[in-house]
Design goal:
Strand order of the largest sheet: 2-1-3-5-7-12
CATH architecture of the largest domain: 3-Layer(aba) Sandwich
Number of helices: 13
Radius of gyration: 25 Å
Distance between the termini: 75 Å
Number of domains: 3
Number of strands: 13
Length: about 350
């Protein structure tokens, strides 16, 4: 005989509560006291309760079909040295736009909070978020690498972007920077460029956990010695240092997210792409008047994915710092541009 599946109604009967209370308790809903959640979870374990995957799928399907209703706010926590300092490049702005749009589709609204607001403390921001019944937090990228943000994280579900946050160790959504760099290199090699030079600051490379230099070097080591150019990776890029590197190493194409270097080349008499190609692994870093070849990091989609991840965590009652973090990597898309051109392979070999 097939045993009947244990349901939330069975647990409710044993616990002496309504079945909706059981559902909320198992999801660790903030409206249910912690002691009640623990008691109901203990009863569920005793009864060997297992959620019905088909019922969960049906609930998810109905939720997608329904017209979104307002569920509450999600905090967009910024930690820049000025109020708008978090939004230092186009990538971060697109993260915010993607997150805002997806939150609205799911019935939420993003509300921005600045952690360095005069008079703001870690205790004060928790009091504000709690008073507004905000349990979901998205941390914007930090102003520099290896930063720490101290809050009572047990109260919240939280995700962040990129690798600039040293603590807490949260789930991360970010561009696949290693793959983006490899995409640029492979496209330039396919066009016939052979002496590829990578120019970026050590600071920006550190922000992506060295994925840009890693992606470049993972392919460069396969090339003949006469095609290998040392990276130009100072702490700060200067026109003098950059142009010395260009003249000494004679690259036939340069890869950089610092699009201002394109103007530097042109101001020093180099025609792009006639004399030298130029491409970027991070097209959304800056707004530029020229159609530049490179990888679009799909930063808007990354913002939407962050909200999807966060809302799912909230529905499942996943509060606090996760024991095992997830890194969701968003693949970039190659975009053609007029800063590169097909080379004569025989001449460049």
């Amino acid at each position: 005989m097939e045993l009947r599946r244990i349901t939330v109604r069975d647990i409710a009967k044993r616990a002496g509560v309504h079945f909706t209370t059981v559902s909320r308790a198992l999801a660790k809903h903030p409206s249910i006291p912690t002691r009640t959640c623990e008691r109901i979870r203990k009863i569920a374990d005793e009864l060997k309760y297992v959620p019905d995957p088909m019922l969960s799928a049906l609930t998810s399907y109905r939720t997608r079909l329904a017209t979104p209703t307002f569920h509450g706010n999600i905090a967009w926590l910024t930690n820049g040295f000025s109020r708008g300092g978090w939004n230092s490049c186009g990538t971060f702005d697109l993260h915010f736009k993607g997150a805002t749009g997806r939150a609205q589709e799911l019935g939420y609204q993003l509300e921005e909070f600045w952690l360095r607001e005069p008079g703001m403390t870690s205790r004060r921001i928790v009091e504000i978020l709690t008073a507004r019944n905000i349990r979901g937090v998205i941390l914007s990228p930090q102003p520099r690498a290896k930063m720490r943000v101290r809050l009572d994280w047990d109260r919240f579900a939280a995700v962040t972007f990129g690798f600039t946050l040293a603590w807490p160790n949260l789930h991360v959504v970010t561009s696949n920077c290693f793959q983006s760099m490899q995409q640029v290199v492979r496209h330039l090699r396919a066009l016939g460029y052979r002496r590829l030079g990578l120019a970026l600051t050590a600071i920006s490379n550190e922000r992506v956990n060295h994925a840009w230099s890693g992606g470049f070097l993972s392919l460069q080591h396969e090339w003949p010695r006469n095609q290998k150019i040392p990276l130009h990776m100072p702490r700060t890029l200067t026109e003098k240092g950059f142009m010395k590197w260009v003249k000494d190493q004679r690259p036939d194409a340069i890869i950089s997210q610092e699009l201002g270097l394109l103007e530097v080349l042109q101001q020093n008499g180099y025609r792009v792409p006639e004399d030298m190609g130029f491409a970027t692994q991070s097209l959304t870093s800056y707004v530029h008047t020229r159609r530049i070849a490179g990888v679009d990091e799909n930063a808007t989609e990354a913002g939407a994915v962050a909200v999807n991840l966060l809302v799912g965590m909230m529905h499942r009652g996943e509060w606090g710092i996760p024991q095992l973090t997830q890194n969701i990597l968003i693949k970039g898309s190659w975009q053609e541009g007029d800063t590169v051109a097909r080379q004569n392979l025989l001449a460049s070999s």
